[in-house]
Amino acid sequence: MTAPVFVADSLAGAAPGATLTLDGPEGRHAVAVRRLRVGEEIVLTDGAGTGALGTVAAVEGKERLEVAVAEVRVEPEPSPRITVVQALPKGDRGELAVETMTETGVDAIVPWSAARCVTQWRGERGAKALRKWRATAREAGKQSRRLRFPEVAEPAGTRQLLPLLASAAFAAVLHEEGSEPLATADLPADGELVLVVGPEGGIAPEELDAFAGVGARPYRLGPSVLRTSTAGTAAAALLLGRTGRWS
């Protein structure tokens, strides 16, 4: 079992032999929920690629512990980078999509207000939903022992997605009527790979046309039609295997 991961407010001064403090909500979770004790292994991360590996040196009260650092690791930016444009699902299936994509290894997630989305993020409701997605990515990143958590961007409309797709090294729109399977697509060795996942009601023809205009072609995953909350995870796993990031 690998050591549990917790998010530190700062890793300034992290070096072998140094001692770092974990307190606040993360410290409370480590002490009161995980019940970590002196001598147990732990990893502190900033969520941006740096991790301090060490052992618990002291436990103070119910929400504070000291960590003796044994090693500091810095994960390089992944290459190629995988971004998923995720249409807004109904209910809590959005958090499910974010959770599984984070565990799989997606690097960035863009919430997309597609024309046929039943759910639309507006006002405080939209801000709350975005906070939930970001909190889900953070918790799933910790659970899956990642040092670099995926960025969850501000929600975008179709027009706002076009620059992202135009600048990508490879952009694919997941669509059951795609003429080419994603499994045989010609992939670049580096750069950004962008996957577009439509809503349960499907991608509108005018959206497909707009995406095609900037080079994002439709690709199919397989003979079955996946739900919007699972398609991004399946497609990302395929690309992670094909690009060697899972080697």
Q: Your description of this structure?
A:
- This protein has 247 residues and is an alpha/beta fold.
- It is built from 6 helices and 12 strands.
- The strands form 2 sheets. The protein has a 7-stranded parallel β-sheet, with helices on both faces. A 5-stranded mixed β-sheet has the order 1-3-4-5-2, with helices on one face.
- The chain starts with a strand and ends in a 5-residue tail after the last helix.
Helix-strand blueprint:
Blueprint: E1 5-7, E2 19-22, H1 24-33, E3 41-45, E4 50-60, E5 64-74, E6 81-87, H2 93-104, E7 108-112, H3 123-143, E8 151-152, H4 158-167, E9 170-174, E10 180-181, E11 192-197, H5 205-213, E12 217-220, H6 228-242
Parallel strand pairs: 1-3, 6-7, 6-11, 7-8, 9-11, 9-12, 10-12
Antiparallel strand pairs: 2-5, 3-4, 4-5
Helix pairs in contact: 2-3, 2-6
Can you give keywords for this protein?
247 residues, alpha/beta, 5-stranded mixed sheet, 26% strand, elongated
Could you give a quick summary of the protein structure above?
It contains six helices and twelve strands. By secondary structure, it is of the alpha/beta class. The longest helix has 21 residues, at 123-143.
